[in-house]
Here is the input.
Amino acid sequence: MLLNIYETLLKFFGFQHWWPTKSGNKTEEIIIGAVLTQQTAWRNVEKSIDNLINAGCLSLKRISGMKLKEIENLIRPCGFYRVKAKRLKEISTYFSRKYGNLHRFFEKPLEECRKELLSLNGIGYETCDAILLYAGNKPIFVVDRYTHRILSRAGVWSGKFRYEALRRFIESRVPRDLKLYKEFHALFDELAKTYCRSEPLCKECPLREMCKFKQGK
DNA sequence: ACCCAGGTGGCCC
DNA sequence: GGGCCACATGGG
Here is the structure.
């Protein structure tokens, strides 16, 4: 069932090329973007990332040395800029001091990296797993509210949103494949943005056959 | 003028 | 463990 959904979405939307980056500092850009995008539209994150690039500050080392106010001013467009500036600075300082190069961090086993990330302020399950999957190339499935909404409507998952339960459920039903993990999450996001919003909009939805909201009116 | 966006942490029970 | 709240800008 899940693989059927994956194939259907892939055919319908095409390859998504996640995680999108625009600098040469890909790994760090993903980590920074993962924090900035919390509860925020991506277009606003892009403005903040552009500001960081133009200021020559798109690196953990740079951010760790900046004043909080400077960070706030650059990332303002992405919203929640005070909490996010604080989170970014703490996280940047942590990694810059403990690991010069992030390769030193990601060469550790997945579970160790995960525990360490989750212990940091500002990194919850989703941010943690997005960093592990897209920045660290570790096979862990990233789950979010969209995933829950879509799988609920498709009748694959019943019940509330519980991150770990949903993640394990999916991981136990699809091949442990890095490319599939990356792509499936991106496709869930794309579908939710276009056809699976809070109001049912099932007419053109590629999953309309299995969707619980049958095209009413 | 609403509503939502690629969540998280703090506080309460 | 769950339910509620603050955090904030920008686009539809």
